């Protein structure tokens, strides 16, 4: 039996976790040390862990084939955008932007995760002259755009990543 593990860098995984905890504010924290005293107001380690870990575990489990095939979901900016979307499901998220876990999963279900320009060019990547995608824009550059495309399906970026 061959087991395929996802190919995700530790820094990309860190961006996913940090943005899941802090939302958009996590984009600027993704490369710095975060201490318990830095957790969102009114939270503690147990609460953050109890909310974020199961949500991320389900996300990775439900979308495992995309992670294992090294689709767009493994790009750092896409993971940061996913984290921002996950943040909306946490109890400490801004009440004006909260999202139920099932709502989040419905938003993710119709995303086209293939590394193709028609889905990701201008959102999380740039297509070169040959049409090849370059996802090197990074967490801070593209994470917010990816989050908006995930959370808001109607605007152009949201339709693009859904193949519409």
Structure overview:
There is one protein chain. The chain is mainly alpha-helical and 164 residues long. The chain has one domain. It is built from 9 helices and 2 strands; from the N terminus they run αααααααββαα. Helix 5 packs across helix 8. The chain is globular and about 50 Å long. The model has no long low-confidence stretch (mean pLDDT 91).
Strand content: under 5%
Radius of gyration: 15 Å
The tally of helices reads 9
Mean pLDDT: 91
Key structural traits:
164 residues; 2 strands; globular
Topology:
Layout: H1 10-22, H2 26-29, H3 45-62, H4 64-68, H5 76-87, H6 101-109, H7 117-120, E1 126-127, E2 133-134, H8 139-151, H9 156-160
Helix pairs in contact: 1-5, 5-8
Structure in a nutshell:
The protein is mostly helical and 164 residues long.
